Amino acid sequence: MHTPLLFLSLLSTAGAVPTYGHGTTSGWDSAYAKAQTALAKLSQDEKAGIVSGMTWEGGPCVGNTYAANSIGYPSLCLQDSPLGIRFANPVTAFPAGINAGATWDRSLLYARGAAMGAEAKGLGVHVQLGPVAGPLGKNPDGGRNWEGFSVDPYLSGVGMEETIRGMQDSGVQACAKHWLGNEQEVYRDTISSNMGDRETHELYVWPFMNAVRADVASVMCSYNKVNGTWACESDEILNDLMKNELGFRGYIMSDWNAQHTGVNSALAGLDMTMPGSDFNTPRGSIFWGSNLVEAVSNGSVPQSRLDNMVTRILAAWYLVDQDQGYPAVAFSSWNGGKASVNVTADHATVARAVARDSIILLKNKGKTLPLGRPESLAIIGSDAIVNPGGPNACSDRSCNNGTLAMGWGSGTAEFPYLIGPLEAIQKHADQHGTKIITSTTDDSTAGAKAAAAAETAIVFINSDSGEGYITVEGNAGDRNNLDPWHNGNTLVQAVAAANKNVIVVIHSVGPVILETILAQPSVKAIIWAGLPGQESGNALTDILFGATSPSGKLPYTIARQRADYGAGWINAQSDPFAEGIFVDYRHFDEQGLQPRYEFGFGLSYTQFKYSGFSANVFTTPGPAVGSVVSGGPVELFESVGSVTVQVVNSGSVAGAEVAQLYIGLPDSAPPSPPKQLRGFQKVKLQPGQAGTATFELTRRDLSYWDTLTQKWVVPSGKFKVYVGASSRDIRQKGTFSVGNR
Ligand SMILES: OC[C@H]1O[C@@H](O[C@H]2[C@H](O)[C@@H](O)[C@H](O[C@H]3[C@H](O)[C@@H](O)[C@H](O)O[C@@H]3CO)O[C@@H]2CO)[C@H](O)[C@@H](O)[C@@H]1O
């Protein structure tokens, strides 16, 4: 794995094409050979135990399987979450996936994954239940969008790949979830995601291809139905799509209680059932265990299917060398999670770097930021301070009191500490003689009074969401709307009426409609800080006072109104995915809609100039027909060349620019989004320094999914290439042709 030292040196490599510590892709063959040898020694009961959970709370972890002593195989420990180890302490509470995505920094994505993996291994967790690419986030109010990296499949795919490589290089098995179409929470246990074939592949499957390509050990099937069949018993999406089409060699586990049948799910390709019983009747509804042994003996499930489940699970265990003296489980989820070892090392450094480099500067009129040395600052809003009851006062973060640093649900971890914004700003102010005036409620009158007494006012607002088994302030997982919570608009209006120099900081799970806030002339700057984890305040002061120039870019579009996004569901039974392939910026571009802040947008304290576009892309048109490797047909991952541009830091301070490559398919392709992200590179530059952004392209990047032939196809004709600072701020353009046209 990368050590933090190496990761820091990667960060400072200005302009160079980064290299990554990728794991091996040839490990599955030897892992399978070991698994098959072990399989021969197992009894039928041991096989059933390896594929079955020990029931909810049946072991120290949220999921536990039975040990097989005949081969020295342990009771497997499966534990959330995608941002740190759930129900254990001390652990590092990293920024959420959506912040990791907002960094657009491959090295940081890897470092965060590696650090989480190291903590998981140190605590004896065999399978860490993350990262997340489902939901992808087509519905901007989807409750769990923040657990994943971006609504764009390419960015999400890079997030999946780097995180998985980081985790598994550290020795823990990763779990890519939730497969497939789990795009909302409110009706996730009843709804059918009726997805067309093209969007299934081009949007929702795409990031899972990256996961499989990164040799992910396991995949979790989701609660919802896909085209009328429960995801966890769908032969089409488990056997056909995940195992055959994507060449996945690991195992598929159910989400917790997402299994509905014993025999059908086994035949459809489910390999492990979790947690082994339903939550409310701890020993009831057990589909596998001894029932699976019975199903095999009466011929309902072939012996070969059970053997295949076991082989897949054992192979994943061998793949990441967990047979080589893996640590014992060092905590229990059910008694406060106190760990017998401290695994946090210096991971706070990684957490702070991700939190800092994910901060997005949306507005900065008159260079209000960085702040320099103001005489006085008003800090306003309940989001400026840590929940007075403590950062972990609500289980699974099931409340929105105090500063928001993660959403709610199973995708959480316990904070070892949480540096709130006020605490960090006060510390900085003490060192520089700035007077701090506070109003740490959401009361508008008090906020206005504090604002009136200071040179500059910083107002903190937020918007929360989470998993559907918890309802917070009337939001049953998904958000009821995209407005700030706790009357945030009213608070900003009151403060803006009292002070001419207002900065708004937003902690949020996703897009927030900003029209009311932008209508206030006194609002000079807006910062999106997302869900920054334990280092929230420190990361924010790094940006506010200019120690670092902001370099995050939006991983989704901020619209002028909710209706502009288009996507949504009809009722508890059906989501027709009527928006098809046109989600987020693909939809805005296609419809000619003006976003408020477009996908990929983010300001800096410096400026960047682009020049020297060059495209060297050579390939032939046609379908990918070759053999399947991890991720899909082998040709899809073949390099077809690259596009390069020069980026110069033309300003006066150091900064980092995320140069983005978008491609428009030729006219011979079926109707497609005008442009789609197909590359990015974060270039770190000193003032005056130039760097090269290189975008390597594969055949997959040039392909669409052809529903007729059921193949990825590279169309012939002229491809349009756009390179820019966002999806709408295109700085360089060009074309290349494929085939005869
Ligand atoms: O954690 C493993 C996966 O679990 C799914 O979420 C479940 C979550 O982990 C669990 O804590 C919660 O349990 C509640 C249960 O649903 C409810 O009936 C009971 O009354 O209270 C329980 C909480 O104490 O259930 C969640 C599922 O509904 C996630 O979807 C998945 O991503 C996790 O990896």
Task: Tell me what you see in this structure.
With 741 residues, the chain is an alpha/beta fold. The chain is built from 18 helices and 28 strands. A six-stranded mixed beta sheet has the order 1-2-3-4-6-9. It has a six-stranded mixed beta sheet with strand order 10-15-14-13-11-12, with helices on both faces. Strands 8-7-5-16 form a four-stranded mixed beta sheet, with no helix packed on it. The radius of gyration is 25 Å and the shape is globular. The two termini are 46 Å apart. Mean pLDDT is 95; it is low at 1-25. Bound molecules: ligand L2SNVXEC. Residues 62, 80, 129, 177, 255-256, 279-280, 410, 469 line the site of ligand L2SNVXEC.
How many helices in DSSP terms?
18
Main pleated-sheet profile: 6 strands, mixed
Structural class, by secondary structure, is alpha/beta
Strand order in space, largest sheet: 1-2-3-4-6-9
Strands, count: 28
Radius of gyration: 25 Å
Helix content: 25-40%
Shape: globular
- Poorly predicted regions are 1-25
Features:
26% helix; alpha/beta; 20% strand; 741 residues
Give the SSE map:
Blueprint: H1 4-11, H2 27-39, H3 44-51, E1 63-64, E2 77-79, H4 97-103, H5 106-122, E3 127-128, H6 153-169, E4 173-179, E5 192-193, H7 197-213, E6 218-221, E7 225-226, E8 229-230, H8 236-245, E9 251-254, H9 263-268, H10 290-297, H11 303-319, H12 347-357, E10 360-364, E11 376-380, H13 421-432, E12 435-439, H14 444-452, E13 456-463, H15 488-498, E14 502-508, H16 515-518, E15 523-528, H17 536-544, E16 574-575, H18 585-591, E17 608-617, E18 622-623, E19 628-629, E20 632-633, E21 639-649, E22 655-664, E23 676-685, E24 690-698, E25 704-706, E26 711-714, E27 717-724, E28 730-738
Parallel strand pairs: 2-3, 3-4, 4-6, 5-7, 5-16, 6-9, 11-12, 11-13, 13-14, 14-15
Antiparallel strand pairs: 1-2, 7-8, 10-15, 17-21, 18-26, 19-20, 21-24, 22-23, 22-27, 25-26, 27-28
Helix pairs in contact: 2-11, 3-11, 5-6, 5-12, 6-7, 12-17, 13-17, 14-15
